[in-house]
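Request: How about a record?
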Amino acid sequence: MTHGRPGAGVLVVTTESIPGHRIINVIGEVVGVSPHSSVGFREGLKSLRTGASAPAEVKIKIMYQSRRDAVEDLMRRAFEMGANAIIGMRFDHRLVSETWNEVCAYGTAVWAVPSAAGRVSGGVVAVSAAASGRALQPG
């Protein structure tokens, strides 16, 4: 399943293995980033008119979107490396300059195949713990 974007079919898990699958190739470290301005006005965290802080719901939405963007970049990069899954995914963040910060998603790009013992007849092995919510189809 590609969802029309490169990397959209890449499974992302926070675990070191994928239940029902075996890893046949470790491709390597993969990193996805989501750069953002640390200027509240630019990110929509403050009103340009009054300078007032945005409501908590707006801040939460922006934070979730930053993580989703980083995971989507991670998936695209893993796909370009020839991976169909990422294990051990984690998040990090850092201030890049006085006006820019990044949210970073990273993990290990791998090629995983269904194991004979882990096949689910006619179903999906749903193991994704990442924001992407993807799952590999059993073969």
Remarks:
- The first strand starts at residue 11 and ends at 12.
- Residues 120-135 have pLDDT under 50 and may be disordered.
- The chain has one domain: 11-118.
- The helical segments are 56-81.
